Amino acid sequence: MSDAVDQLISDFYAKTPLRYAFDFPQICTFLENRFNFLSRSLETTRPLQIYWTLFPYMLSIRQLKVQLDFLLNSDLWDNMQLSLVQEHLSNAQQQLNKLKPMIIQTLRTDFCQREFHHFHIMNAYGTVLSLKMLNFDVNQLAQNALFMLTQLQCENGAFRANPEGESDARTTFAAVVIGKLTGLLNEPIFAQTREYLMSKQSYQGGFCSNGLEPHAAYTYCALAALKILNVELNAEEKSLHLHYLVNRQTKWGGLNGRPYKDPDGCYSWWVLGALHILDKDKLKLVNKDLFNKFALNCCQPEDGCGLRDKPGVEPDSYHTAYVLGGWSIINGALDDEEVCLGICM
Ligand SMILES: [Zn+2]
Q1: Quick one: what percent of the chain has pLDDT higher than 70?
Q2: Cα 166 from chain centroid?
Q3: Same domain? 341 vs 223
Q4: What single-letter DSSP state applies at residue 255?
Q5: Per-residue pLDDT tens for 53-101?
Q6: Would residue 7 count as lying in a domain?
Q7: How far, in Å, from the CA of 265 to the mean position of ligand 1?
Q8: Is 162 within a domain?
Q9: Which part of the chain is the Prenyltransferase alpha-alpha toroid domain (predicted)?
Q10: d(CA 317, ligand 1 centre) in Å
Q11: Going by C-beta distance under 8 Å and a sequence separation of 6 or more, which residues neighbour residue 75?
Q12: Where are the beta strands (DSSP E) in the chain?
C-alpha cells in the first residue's frame, strides 16, 4: 500500500465517527437518480451502467427485507422502526416496478437493434444479466447472442470485446455468462474456451490478463467462467489461488487487486467472489470484521448516498455494485449461482 493512502485512511478514522450499517434507503435514492439519468442518456456503455445500477438496487431491496424479517421476529417490538423499514421497502419495490418497463425496453432495443460491430461484449453481459434479474426470458436473445459471439470468437477459445477489440479472461467470462443464460454453452464456439482459461493461470496463483502478472478481477472472471463450464481445478492449483486471494486483504481490511497496491472498494467483489467460487469455506480466512469496518466506513460517504472506492473519492454505481456485492458475499447473502454470474434474484 502507498504511504499516502495509508495516511489518508488513518486520518479518516481519526476524525470520522464509526458506522455499523449501510444506509440502504439512501443507497436506493442514489441508484434511482442514476436510473433516471440513464433512461435519457445515450452513453455507449448504457447497458453496463444499467447493470451496475440494478444489481446493487436488488441487493439493497434484499437487505431491507432482511431488516424487516429481523424486526418482525424479534421480541423487542419497535413499531416505529418497523413501519419505517416497511415504508422504505415498499417504496423501493414500487420504484423498481415503475422502472422495470423502461429498463427492459432500453436494453432490448440496445441489444437487438445496434450493429454488433460497435457493441462491446461487456454491454451484452450487462444486458443479459439485468434482464435475467428482472425475470425477463433471456432465451429470446439466443439468436442475436449466437450471431454476436460467433463474430467475437478467437481461434484459441477466447472471445473479443468487439470484432477488432482485445480478448482476455474478462471478455471471455462475459461470453460464457451470456452463453450460459441463453443456452448456448454446447455450441462449438465454446469448444476451446476451457483450455484458454486454464492457460491464464499464474504460477504465483491467480489468473492473468495478457501479461504475466495475475490480477484479482481476472482471477474472479476466470474462476467463475471455469465453474460455469464445469471445470474442476486440482488441489495444487486451488491452494495457489487461495494463497494469492487471501493475501489481497490490506491492514485496513479493504482488498487490493495486486500485491503492494492500495485497497479499493471494488475489489471486495473480485476477491471475495473468487474466494467463494474457489472454496466458500475459505472465506473465513479473510478478517470479516476488519473488512466490514472498511466497507461501512471507508466506502460509505457521510450522507450514505452511493458507495465509493475509498475516502476522498466520489461514489458511483460501479463501486456501489461491487462494494455491496462483496459485502453481501462475506456476510452470506448471495448463493453460489448469484456469485458466479453477478446477479441478485
Ligand atoms: Zn475501484
Answers
A1: 98
A2: 21
A3: yes
A4: B
A5: 999 999 999 999 999 999 998 877 778 889 999 999 999 999 999 999 9
A6: no
A7: 6
A8: yes
A9: 93-331
A10: 11
A11: none
A12: 207-208, 214-215
Residue 1 counted as domain residue: no
268 C-alpha to center of ligand 1: Å? 9
What spacing in Å lies between the alpha carbon of 320 and ligand 1's midpoint? 10
Do 140 and 164 share a domain, yes or no? yes
Cα–Cα separations (whole angstroms), residue 340 to 109, 218, 237: 27, 13, 19
- Mention every residue, 6+ apart, whose C-beta is less than 8 A from residue 87: none
| Domain enclosing residue 253, as ranges | 200-345
325 C-alpha to center of ligand 1: Å? 13
Cell readout for 80 is 416505529
Asked if 132 and 181 count as a contact pair (C-beta separation under 8 A), the reply is yes
What is the 316 CA–ligand 1 centroid distance (Å)? 10
* Distance of alpha carbon 263 from alpha carbon 132, whole angstroms: 31
Q: Which helix (H) or strand (E) holds 72?
A: helix 46-73
What's the rounded Cα separation, in Å, for the pair 248 and 315? 22
Distance 266 CA to ligand 1 centre (A): 4
Whole-number Å distance between alpha carbons of 291 and 226: 27
Ligand 1 centroid distance, CA of 83 (Å): 36
Question: How far lies 304's CA from each of 121, 301, 318, 321, 331, in Å?
Answer: 32, 5, 15, 14, 20
Average pLDDT over residues 296-303: 97
Q: How many Å lie between the centroid of ligand 1 and the Cα of residue 146? A: 32
**How far apart are the CA of 150 and the centre of ligand 1, in A?**
32
